[in-house]
């Protein structure tokens, strides 16, 4: 009986049990890295939009400008006199040939918001200054310095842009210059950059001088496109 039962069991073929993996529904959740990447892309897009808005409507355009030629400001003196050769053009008067700059230093106070290549006062070297008689006596609070943006540069760089510059002021023409501040123009920043004067340097002035101390690496010349003075008229 036992042997017969064993014989029946041995002939019985049973497939081993194979357990199927349980299917659990999953929800796709972005990883932290994906969130950080997406956030970075959004921040870059916001920055691009901000830069475009700043280009179309510079914040400096919303401030009164007392170094504006059409309002009565005048360029009084500038150094060096030597100009960038690329800005010189030949003129003829009877049989005399002479050279004169295609753009003069008055362009600095014409208040252009959108600056094109070459529309600047281009002086030889990396140091120079320009002095300006303001249109009114002003309590100066801010100054703005402008240069063509990299995006418009044929070379993709603006090495001729001013780097460090100082601003001086005086109330009367016979007074000594008083330094109002030293600032750094960012070559990767907006084309028009506005700087706040230290509070202890504010005062009423009729004249300003912009001293360019260095540029962003051009060995031959420096270009000054735009300079503005902001504040309130003397009461």
What can you tell me about this protein's structure?
The protein contains two helices and eleven strands, in the order H-H-E-E-E-E-E-E-E-E-E-E-E. The chain has 235 residues and is of the alpha+beta class. The strands form three sheets. Strands 1, 5, 6, 7, 8, 9 and 11 form a seven-stranded antiparallel sheet that branches. A two-stranded antiparallel ribbon has the order 2-3. The longest helix has 25 residues, at 32-56. Mean pLDDT is 80; it is low at 1-10, 12-19 and 87-92.
Observed structural traits:
two-stranded antiparallel ribbon; single chain; alpha+beta; 235 residues
Largest sheet: 7 strands, antiparallel
The separation of the N and C termini measures: 126 Å
Mean pLDDT: 80
- Helix-strand makeup class: alpha+beta
- Number of distinct helices: 2
- Percent range for β-strand residues: 25-35%
Low-confidence stretches: 1-10, 12-19, 87-92
Gross geometry: globular
Kindly state the percentage of residues in helix: 10-25%
If you compute it from the alpha carbons, what radius of gyration comes out, rounded to the nearest whole angstrom? 34 Å
Strand tally, please?
11
Order of helices and strands: HHEEEEEEEEEEE
């Amino acid at each position: 009986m036992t042997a017969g039962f064993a014989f029946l069991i041995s002939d019985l073929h049973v497939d081993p049990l194979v357990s199927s993996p349980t299917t659990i529904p999953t929800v796709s959740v972005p990883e932290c890295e994906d969130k950080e990447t997406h956030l970075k892309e959004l921040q870059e897009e916001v920055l691009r939009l901000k830069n475009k808005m700043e280009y179309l409507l510079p914040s400096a355009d919303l401030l009164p400008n007392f170094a504006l030629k059409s309002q009565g400001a005048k360029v009084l003196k500038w150094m060096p006199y030597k100009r960038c050769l690329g800005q010189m053009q030949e003129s003829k008067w009877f049989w005399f040939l002479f050279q004169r700059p295609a753009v003069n230093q008055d362009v600095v106070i014409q208040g252009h918001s959108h600056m094109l290549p070459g529309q600047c006062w281009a002086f030889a070297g990396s140091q120079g200054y320009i002095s300006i008689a303001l249109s009114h006596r002003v309590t100066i609070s801010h100054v703005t310095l402008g240069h063509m943006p990299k995006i418009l540069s044929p070379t993709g760089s603006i090495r001729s842009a001013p780097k460090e510059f100082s601003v001086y002021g005086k109330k009367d023409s016979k007074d000594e210059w008083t330094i109002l501040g030293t600032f750094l123009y960012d070559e990767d920043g907006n084309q028009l950059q506005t700087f706040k004067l230290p509070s202890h340097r504010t005062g009423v002035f009729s004249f300003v001088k912009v001293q360019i101390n260095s540029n962003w690496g051009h060995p031959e010349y420096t270009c000054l496109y735009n300079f503005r003075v902001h504040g309130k008229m003397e009461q």
